[in-house]
Amino acid sequence: MTRGVPATRLPAALKVNSLSLFFGLIFLLSLVAQAFVGTAYFNREQLSGGLRPVGVGDYVLSSSYWVDVTENWQSEFLQFLLFILATVWFVQKGSPESKAIEKAGRESDKDQKVGRYAEEDSPAWARAGGWRLSVYSHSLALVMGAIFVGSWLAQSVTGAVAYSEEQLRNLQDPVTWTEYLALPEFWSRTVQNWQSEFLAVLAMVVLSIYLRERGSPESKPVGTAHEATGVEG
Prior knowledge:
The protein is mostly helical. It folds into two domains: 1-61; 63-233, no CATH class. The chain contains ten helices and no strands. It has helices at 10-16, 18-48, 56-60, 63-89, 109-112, 124-127, 130-137, 139-169, 177-181, 184-210. The two termini are 36 Å apart.
């Protein structure tokens, strides 16, 4: 029994948080897997260059590991940031990933249940006015944007360090952070991730018009017409 949580309530607590727990678990497992396979790949490169291999712990603390991690993080959060902002104004007929056609835009206070239209269980800042309501009205995009910028900066810094280490191994001059930002090496790694994320979003928006996954909120109900927009299962 978990202290403070009755045994009869624990399964219910897990169930109502199962989606975040599932993705949190596979996220951690993928980080661990990346550490081990990344170490194997890194050591193969080390041995081919006549250098000593490293342990998993040393690799996880290296710039080579973190440039790959943050490179993926920044592209994922950019994808969600753009999707959040684009779906305010842009719509797609027939897609459950789109709001209803007639609701394009910021919508009214009544529709958004803010200010005097707030309900009893509305968040406190949704009932407030002024800067608090303004900030909370855009809080999701602000946080996603901050994580994207932070991840992008982390990728660029760790990438510059990893690139300079490789330059030194090849008896060439290292580069500064600003010099690295101007290199095709950095932008090639960045843009190739962006295009894959944008393609994934496009596929989800368009394919969900015609295809279904029964019981998923990311899909329309199986029997719903293709033209139905903003309807979730």
